[in-house]
Amino acid sequence: HDYNAGAVEPCSTGAVYFDGTDDYIDTNAKPVDTADATYCFWLNSTDAGYGVAFSHSGGATSEGERTGAFHANYQESGESLLYLNNSAYMYWVDTGFADDGKWHHWAVVVDISDVRTSKLYIDGILIAYDGSGTASDSPNSYGNLLIGKYDIVGTDRFIGPAYMCNFGVWDVHLTQPQIKSIMHKDYAALSASEKTSLVSWWNLDSTFSNDIAVYDNHYGGS
Questions:
Q1: What sign has the CA pseudo-torsion 151, 222, 159, 169?
Q2: In what helix (H) or strand (E) does residue 76 lie, and over which residues does it extend?
């Protein structure tokens, strides 16, 4: 991408739209066994509230229950938040990118040995940690991956209004050069080495079953 040519745009033929009311994706899968992973996606949002990019629901039995939950908010009181199991969390400094209505690439590198050592990259640039947060607390009931929703139970915190595409999950910590390499690619453009530790990738530009199911380009199914 030629940054001097204009705004950053994702490489995709389409994107999923979340209306902010009840739209979300339940992958019905747990791509990684722990939160130690890298999550990458393109996001375009005007949501100034509590925008939940993704989560792993943790055995909740009632709406609002947080036990075992893990989630990443691209917007929370003007900052981005990574939150783990009720007690471990970190905030990144306000970037102004979360709700500006433009496309930005997000990469969240999660380390549950100490959540405060996790990293956030926006458009390939490392975002500073604001200093607030606590040490890690490993998930005790690690659940399936949800995209655009906080919790599997009830109607708690949906993403939106927002568009999202090219959502990938790796079971390793990607480096900044790796993130910059994959950020302008859809699944077909990824190199063999970039797929080595990839466990799931959703272009989010195609659907199955009348828009009910989305296609996992890496796994090869819905």
A1: positive
A2: strand 70-76
